[in-house]
Structures are given as structure tokens and as C-alpha cells.
């Protein structure tokens, strides 16, 4: 990639948020008090926050103006009907159930479709998605292609489904015991890797033969569509918006965290095509979220999301967003830092196994690397390894994922390219001193989603 492509962002800054600069001694104290878990840090003590791209985007002036048009009526908010019309226009789903964020939608779809003893195949797990599936009594089955588990392999669509793995699962457990296939557009745990339209069409054909639904995790569908436009033959002349519609048309429903593509700080929805499922879903949303015309959102948040969906498929926006991520990836590669290839769409994933070969997986190398990045330059990143993988629900043993990754997720429209260059310099310096990084032991472990609240001590 040519560095000249990143000379300027396609927007200007109207409002700023001051960043706090801390000393290394202060950061060492802060992370010690946080139990060596960056989730426990105060945001004020973080310089560059690459923990997540979820809910951290900068909204546009149109979105902020839309917030002032919030209709906070308990029932029938006009903002819901605007959101509903936008979802139908850009995604094509018939029915919309608003939720407080994506995991609210995951909870409802899992509760409706999963029964104990069933299996939910997917193109690699995501933490909250798998947790809801397991709490409903299901078992996740990974059907992603093997290339997705090889960080150094530069394969363009690592989010693809291995069709033979899916066939084998159907043959083993029976189609009646597979309530749906969970398909993520851009696979978070694989490094933000996209699925190709060609592969999704094959998955759709196979599932239709067996009467199995496809439920779409569409939080970053526009980013996936951009990668299809750039790298899949036959799509270079298609607008991102058209590719998004084509992706969604191959699925039966979707869970959406509006905190990603839709550029809002809170909110999500469940989208469905089946009327009977929709009627069941709105009964459940009243129990767990709120009335079916607001779910877990205020009217102003629904308005901002409707506008954000429109902005998410803007060609200049989506191109600049992903090129900034690729810019960070190139900087790290030039500095010798081992990362997941090819660079994904919402962040750069450092290969902690290759970065810290002297640490075993039980010494939590990815977690240790997040600590080193914070100590060195105040960067907050996220562990995506054994801590995130958790424990087997049947045996209680650690799940050992094939990759130990550290995600540097870039918020949309928040940081300048100079910030990105500085982040790369900090990571490269940590890499140059990598032999000084020691492992960790876990001293507190919560029952669910332990990576959020676990505490550690240095070995």
C-alpha cells in the first residue's frame, strides 16, 4: 500500500476531546491497580484507546442534529419508523426489533431458536454470541476454513466457511438439530477477516437443501462489502451499498450492533424476514428490553443510527476507514512486528505467539502483550486468546485457541493518521524489547466472559 493514499481524512474536526499524557511510572501504577487487565483501567488514564471499535466512533454533524429530533414517546416513536425504513432500504430485511445493543439481539434469537442439545455452526466464535448460544443449551461448532487459524498466511477471505466441515456436522448431528448457521461478515476473532460472496452463496445453497436458517452477525457488513468490492472478482464496479444488499439477501435474519458500522455509541437491532419469528421476538423484547418500537434505545439514538447506516455505505467514508487500518498494518509490518495477514477491516491483530515465543499459552502471552503496550505508551488494546476463549462448559478446562492475538481496534473517525503512526512506533519499540516481557497468572476469574473482569499478577 502506498503511504500517499493516507495523506488526509475525508472530514474536518469540529470538536476535540483532550487526551491525558501520563508517565511510565503512573501507567505501571494504574495497570497494577487494574489487576493487569486493561478493561479495569479508567479511560482518563489511556492515551490511545484501541480497546474496541464498538460504540467508540465519532458521530457526524448530521447524526448530532438528528439527536435533537428524538421522539421519546413510549410507543410509536417516529424515530423507530425512520430506522425501520432505513433497515429495509439498505439491508432488505422485512422486520426490525430494536435492542439496546447487539448482544440483546443475540439473546433474543438464541432464546427463540436454540434448544438444549442443538448445535450452532459458525465461521469462528465470537465471545458474546457463543455465550448466548451456550446459555440457551446449544453447542457452538467452528466451521471456518483452516486458513483462518494461520496468522502469517495472506489469504483474502479468511472468513469463509469450510463447506465440508458444515456437511460433516449435518451428517453427524442431523439438520433438525441445527437451528441456524451463524455467519459473521468480517470475522472478529480471525483478525477482522471477510467472507466472500461466492462462499456465502454456496453456504446458502447447502443450508436451503437441509432447511437450515442463516442468521447474520452484520455489525461490520459494510466493511465486509468493501473488501468484496476490492478483492473478489466481478465486484469492483459495484457500489458498497449494492453489495451489502446482496449479502443480506442470502440470509434469513440478522443481529446488529449499531455501535460498529452504524456509527453510534449505543444501540442495535434484530432483523427478520419471517413474520411468525418477528411476532415471537417482539413478545420477548418487551420482557427483556422495552416496547417493540424502542427496544432498549431512546428515540434520539434510533435517529442517529438511521443516519449512521446511510453514512456507513458512503464510498469515501468506508474507503478511508479501512485504509487507515491498513496504514497501521503496514507500519507494523515495516517495523518487523508479526501481525495477522492480510490486514482486516476494523483493526490490526498482533500475533502474540510469534511476538512472545518464550511464553507458553498458560502464561497468557496476549494478555501480557496488552500490558506491555499500555506501559510503554498508554495504548489500550484487547486480548483475543486463551483468556477470551474461556473454559469448556462441560469439562471446565481452559479452551486453547489456535491463535493468541492482541487486537488494536481503531475507532471510526476518531484518531488522525499521526496518532496511528505514533501507535505503530510504540508497538515497534515494545517488539524490540520483547524479551523483557514476562507472563501472567490469573488470580480472579468470573464465571462468564472472564476477559472483561479477570485479574492477574506477573509471574
Automatic annotation (TrEMBL):
Q: What is its EC number?
A: 4.1.99.2
Q: Sorted alphabetically, which Gene3D superfamilies does this protein's record hold?
A: Aspartate Aminotransferase, domain 1, Type I PLP-dependent aspartate aminotransferase-like (Major domain)
Superkingdom: Bacteria
Q: A single Gene Ontology molecular function, please?
A: tyrosine phenol-lyase activity
| Cofactor field | pyridoxal 5'-phosphate
CDD domains per the UniProt record, alphabetical: Tnase_like (cd00617)
Record's catalysed reaction(s)? L-tyrosine + H2O = phenol + pyruvate + NH4(+)
Looking at the Swiss-Prot or TrEMBL record, what is one Pfam family this protein matches?
Beta_elim_lyase
A Gene Ontology biological process term: tyrosine metabolic process
Give the keywords, sorted.
Lyase, Pyridoxal phosphate
Q: Which residues carry this modification: N6-(pyridoxal phosphate)lysine?
A: 260
What residues does the Aromatic amino acid beta-eliminating lyase/threonine aldolase domain cover? Answer: 49-424
Question: To which protein family does this belong?
Answer: Belongs to the beta-eliminating lyase family.
What NCBIfam families does this protein map onto? PRK13238.1, tyr_phenol_ly
* Name the UniProt record assigns to this protein: Tyrosine phenol-lyase
Amino acid at each position: 500500500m502506498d503511504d500517499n493514499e493516507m495523506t488526509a481524512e475525508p472530514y474536518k474536526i469540529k470538536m476535540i476531546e483532550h487526551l491525558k499524557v501520563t508517565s511510565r511510572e503512573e501507567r505501571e501504577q494504574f495497570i497494577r491497580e487494574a489487576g493487569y487487565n486493561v478493561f479495569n483501567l479508567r479511560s482518563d488514564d489511556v492515551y490511545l484507546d484501541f480497546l474496541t471499535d464498538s460504540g467508540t466512533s465519532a458521530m457526524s454533524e448530521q447524526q448530532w442534529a438528528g439527536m435533537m429530533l428524538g421522539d421519546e414517546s413510549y410507543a410509536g416513536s417516529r424515530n423507530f419508523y425512520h430506522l425501520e425504513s432505513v433497515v429495509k432500504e439498505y439491508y432488505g430485511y422485512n422486520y426490525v426489533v430494536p435492542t439496546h445493543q447487539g448482544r440483546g439481539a443475540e439473546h433474543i434469537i438464541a432464546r427463540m431458536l436454540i434448544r438444549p442439545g442443538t448445535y450452532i455452526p459458525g465461521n469462528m466464535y465470537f465471545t458474546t454470541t457463543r455465550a448466548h448460544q451456550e446459555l440457551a443449551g446449544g453447542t457452538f461448532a467452528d466451521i471456518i476454513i483452516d486458513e483462518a487459524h494461520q496468522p502469517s498466511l495472506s489469504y483474502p477471505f479468511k472468513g469463509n466457511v469450510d463447506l465440508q466441515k458444515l456437511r460433516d456436522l449435518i451428517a453427524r448431528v442431523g439438520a433438525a438439530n441445527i437451528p441456524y448457521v451463524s455467519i459473521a461478515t468480517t470475522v472478529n476473532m480471525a483478525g477482522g477477516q471477510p467472507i466472500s460472496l461466492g462462499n456465502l452463496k454456496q453456504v446458502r445453497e447447502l443450508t436451503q437443501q437441509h432447511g437450515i436458517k442463516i442468521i447474520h452477525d452484520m455489525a461490520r457488513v459494510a466493511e465486509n462489502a468493501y473488501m468484496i468490492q476490492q478483492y473478489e472478482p466481478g465486484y469492483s464496479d459495484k457500489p458498497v451499498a449494492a453489495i451489502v444488499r446482496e449479502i443480506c439477501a442470502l440470509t434469513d435474519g440478522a443481529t446488529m450492533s449499531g455501535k460498529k458500522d452504524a456509527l453510534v455509541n449505543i444501540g442495535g437491532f434484530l432483523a427478520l424476514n419471517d413474520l411468525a419469528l418477528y411476532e415471537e421476538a417482539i413478545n420477548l423484547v418487551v420482557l427483556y428490553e422495552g416496547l417493540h418500537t424502542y427496544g432498549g434505545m431512546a428515540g434520539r439514538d434510533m435517529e442517529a443510527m438511521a443516519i449512521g447506516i446511510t453514512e456507513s455505505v458512503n464510498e469515501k467514508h468506508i474507503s478511508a476507514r479501512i485504509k487507515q487500518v491498513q496504514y497501521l498494518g503496514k507500519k507494523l509490518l515495516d517495523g518487523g512486528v508479526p501481525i495477522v495477514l492480510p490486514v482486516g477491516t476494523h483493526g490490526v491483530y498482533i500475533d502474540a505467539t510469534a511476538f512472545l515465543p518464550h511464553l507458553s499459552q498458560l502464561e497468557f502471552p496476549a494478555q501480557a502483550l496488552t500490558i506491555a503496550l499500555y506501559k510503554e505508551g498508554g495504548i489500550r488494546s484487547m486480548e483475543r486468546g486463551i483468556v477470551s476463549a474461556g473454559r469448556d462448559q462441560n469439562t471446565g478446562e481452559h479452551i486453547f485457541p489456535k491463535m493468541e492475538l492482541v487486537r488494536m481496534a481503531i475507532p471510526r473517525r476518531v484518531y488522525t493518521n499521526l496518532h496511528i503512526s505514533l501507535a505503530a512506533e510504540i508497538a515497534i519499540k515494545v517488539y524490540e524489547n520483547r524479551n523483557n516481557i514476562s507472563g501472567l497468572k490469573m488470580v480472579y476469574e468470573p464465571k462468564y466472559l472472564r476477559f472483561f473482569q479477570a485479574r492477574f499478577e506477573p509471574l
